[in-house]
Amino acid sequence: MSAKKILILDDHRVVIEGVKTALNERPEFEVVGDAVDAVSAVEMVRSLKPDIVITDVSMPGMNGMDFTVEVKRIVPGLHVVIFSMYSDREYILDFLRVGASSYVLKEEPLGELMFAVAAAARGGLYLGAKVRSVLEDHLSGTEEACGPKEGLSLLSSREREIFVLLAEGLPVKRISEKLNISPKTVESHKYNIMEKLEVGSVVELTRFAIRKNLIRA
């Protein structure tokens, strides 16, 4: 049986190299390419026709969910494995809705990612242990039922992406460059986010993100 072709997408080269090293130890997988921005990755999907793409949520050039939809349109049988630091259940659910095969957190052991890739190769679904815990809490109703979490669920996928980048301290200009949108569009999203979450400053956004484990203090 031929090895499954894998494309790795992440804006941190050290992450790409670490994942590539782990995959190269598995003869059933072949890393056919890697990219640090979503636009380049889309073109590589067109030309290389990989079986599996490993990608982060927030990538330069394209929203992660838009990327997932686009590459699955190009290669209908493609399996997308999300490898991200974002543990918010709305991110997880949104990516599963648009067809991601697996979701693993970067804070988990790299073996979890290997399990996810192996499951994708078989056509199955895999969620990392901490991701499963987040969804189990959601399904069991142990998450907060009201307050700021409600506001977070009102954010669009783009707003949640910008919310996390703002909370991480990125200036509007840097966010616009990373997401390939205008600073004016980022500012518009910023004020919509603050209104929906009922906060008055980026400092409050950051505190909220830390409380919800979306970023680390």
Layout of secondary structure:
Elements: E1 4-9, H1 13-24, E2 29-35, H2 38-48, E3 52-55, E4 58-59, E5 62-63, H3 64-74, E6 79-84, H4 89-97, E7 102-105, H5 110-121, E8 126-127, H6 129-140, H7 148-153, H8 157-167, H9 172-179, H10 183-197, H11 202-211
Parallel strand pairs: 1-2, 1-3, 3-6, 6-7, 7-8
Antiparallel strand pairs: 4-5
Helix pairs in contact: 2-3, 8-10, 8-11, 9-10
Major sheet: order of its strands?
2-1-3-6-7-8
Number of domains: 2
The whole-number mean of residue pLDDT values reads: 85
Output the number of helix runs. Answer: 11
> Pairing-aware structural class of the strands and helices?
alpha/beta
Number of strands: 8
**Helix-strand topology string:** EHEHEEEHEHEHEHHHHHH
The CATH topology assignment of the largest domain is Rossmann fold
Structure commentary:
The protein has 217 residues and is an alpha/beta fold. Helices cover 54% and strands 15% of the residues. The chain contains 11 helices and 8 strands. The protein has a 6-stranded parallel beta sheet, sandwiched between helices. A two-stranded antiparallel ribbon has the order 4-5. The radius of gyration is 17 Å and the shape is globular.
